[in-house]
Amino acid sequence: QLELVQSGGGLVQPGGSLRLSCAASGVTLDHYAIGWFRQGPGKEREGVACMSSGVGSTYYADSVKGRFTISRDNAKNAVYLQMNSLKPNDTAVYYCNRVNNPLDWGQGTQVTVSS
């Protein structure tokens, strides 16, 4: 059974960078399309980036395109989200999950962009 644990959030100033990690256990991660999602204060959860299974094609929301990069390390069975040029409206709880048939969302990892 696949389990996912997010980490790497924190407080960063506008223009700064963070890298989020999504560690998987139970199943090889590249069997699934995996996405990073976020839910900001008073907002609905939205997808920001995803990577397909196998060859790992990537897709990004327009709001993060050019600033965020999703990647996968098969040896570590993990997916990452490199976030650069962070803006205050990137503040949210970030989650990784399967794109199809998502697992329980859990607590995610908080990212706060503020001066």
What labels would you give this structure?
single chain; 115 residues; mainly beta; six-stranded mixed β-sheet; four-stranded antiparallel β-sheet; 48% strand; globular
Describe the model.
The protein has 115 residues and is an all-beta fold. It is built from no helices and 10 strands. The protein has strands spanning 3-7, 10-12, 18-25, 34-39, 46-51, 58-60, 68-73, 78-83, 92-98, 109-113. A hairpin with a 4-residue loop joins β7 (68-73) and β8. The radius of gyration is 13 Å and the shape is globular. The protein starts with a strand and ends with a strand. The mean pLDDT is 95.
Uncertain regions spanning at least 5 consecutive residues: none
Average per-residue pLDDT, rounded, comes to 95
Q: Report the sheet with the most strands, covering strand number, pairing sense and barrel closure.
A: 6 strands, mixed
Order of helices and strands: EEEEEEEEEE
* Content-based structural category: mainly beta
Strand order of the largest sheet: 2-10-9-4-5-6
Q: Please report the number of helical segments.
A: 0
Strand content: over 45%
Helix content: under 10%
Beta strands, count: 10
